[in-house]
Amino acid sequence: MVNLELHNQTVRIDAGELVGYEVGGHEYIHQKGSPGWRNSDTEMFPIIGPSNEANFRITTPRGPAVQDQHGLLREMEYKLVSKAKTKVDFSKKYVSGTAVKNSKFPAKSTEEYLSWPYSFEFQKSYEILEKGLKIQFKITGEEGMPFMLGYHPAFKLHSENVTIQAGDRTISLQEVLDIGSRALPILECESIALFDNGGLSIKTEGFGNFMLWTEVSNMLCIEPISFYPYAVNQEELHTGFLKLDKLERIFSVIIQPNI
Predict the structure, then answer these.
(1) H-type alpha helices, the chain
(2) CA 61, CA 205: separation in Å to the nearest integer?
(3) Which stretches of the chain drop beneath a pLDDT of 70?
(4) Does the keyword Ribonucleoprotein apply (predicted)?
């Protein structure tokens, strides 16, 4: 477990996963074991969304790649790169064509192993700011590599009167619940606010969109995404790819508590 502290802010990170963010004793992150989701944060890379209806094959310039829901990055383990009092860095490295064990097999998938035809390094850092928490992602790899990126944090809800504000759009928690597993898209949006007991705002760079998901009233996933996967059939997921047109791409998320 890694702990970061600054003033009245405390961050807890377990193997690269954000498992706690307290400000003045108020917990913002969904706790494992609570109803809703078995995790508290993860990344969706190099694809976002399901792939079962495409026989778990995603089209790339180098041929079909075997990918399960939300990609293979989540099946890999982070390595600690560096740590200071207010910042910590993690990394995952992948060599093209390497078989990665799929935790969904055999109960929820026919594919025992996943693979990707490009090499990459995925870096994730957490840094406590004076008033907030910054999560940054740096992707380096082969020039021209296609990819999608989504960040999937889950926030703990403390009241029954929860609303989400995106621009001039106000969204109720019930709207998110009604959408179900497809998640509610908030497109062409770089910032969003959660109104709860001890609300927060989320500002992003590089993603361009959000989607909202939950199946319970005590938790809400506010997910910055580069592409909303349910806009197309699974066989056409590749139409949502970005390209690594430089040696690196940087994406960031800043969580700013309202207390």
Answers:
(1) 173-179
(2) 27
(3) 259
(4) no
Q: What pairs with residue 166 in β-bridges?
A: 169
Query: Taking the complete model, does pTM exceed 0.90, yes or no?
Result: yes
**Phi, psi angle pair for 244, to nearest 5°:** -80, 80
Give CA separation, 124 vs 17, 52, 153, 239, in Å.
Answer: 10, 28, 13, 26
Note whether 241 and 229 are within 8 A (CB).
Answer: no
Q: What is the dihedral of CA 222, 194, 15, 252, to 10 degrees?
A: 70
For residue range 207-256, list pLDDT tens digits in order.
999 999 999 999 999 999 999 999 999 999 999 999 998 889 999 999 99
Tokens 């074991």 appear where? Answer: 33
Of 152, 157, 154, the closest CA to residue 195 belongs to 157
Number of domains in the chain: 1
Residue ranges making up the domain that contains 117:
2-257
Tokens of 163: 């609303």
Which is nearest to 189 in space by CA: 172, 213, 205?
A: 205
CB distance 111 to 102 below 8 Å = yes
Give the domain CATH number at 37. 2.70.98.10
Q: What radius of gyration, in Å, describes the C-alpha atoms of the chain?
A: 18
> What's the Cα-to-Cα distance from 188 to each of 94, 185, 226, rounded to whole Å?
30, 10, 10
| Cis upstream peptide for 46 (omega within 30°) | yes
